[in-house]
Amino acid sequence: MRGKKTKISQKDVYILMLYTREQDAPFTGAVFCPVANGKVQDCKKRDGGFIFGMYRFDIGTSWFTRDRDAGLPYALFDNVRFKGKGQYVLTSGAFGEATVIPEDITYSFNSEPGTVFVIPETGQSASEAIKIAQTLLRGEYGDAVDQLNIRLIDAVKYDCEGSSVYKRTCKPGAAVSPSALRKNW
Hints:
Structural class: mainly beta
Order of helices and strands: EEEEEEEEEEEHEEE
Number of helices: 1
Oligomer: single chain
Helix content: under 10%
Largest sheet: 8 strands, antiparallel
Radius of gyration: 15 Å
Number of strands: 14
């Protein structure tokens, strides 16, 4: 593992992203913003957003290196301070220098302290993604991982209006499989 070691606690929310090849990671950093009254706009950390990975000068991610012999992929693992219950969706992000703007589908989760939301690789089953996440986290944190609930992140249809990324209003819709998301930038 490279980077800082994320501390685990039942008080925080976690996101773990799996990817076998670096170019296949959906993003290197992103912001998940709260949904209010069925709508969401891009936000900042101070506006209640969850910053994941290296995004907007917030660098707090632990990186797990790939272990080919054990069949384990790379992973990014980050904790975010619990801000409140409710739905959050990925509104923007980055992949290196490229901007990530979800269009038709985006990742989503209902914030719960002590939960790890796993972003699977494209086409990966929920059970496989959760098993890999448990293996990676147990290897780093041992039995302390037992205090956390590990589940697959959700994904939803996403309909947006507005010309500017930072001023558009979006409506999260029906659930879709998160393993169906593909890079579209």
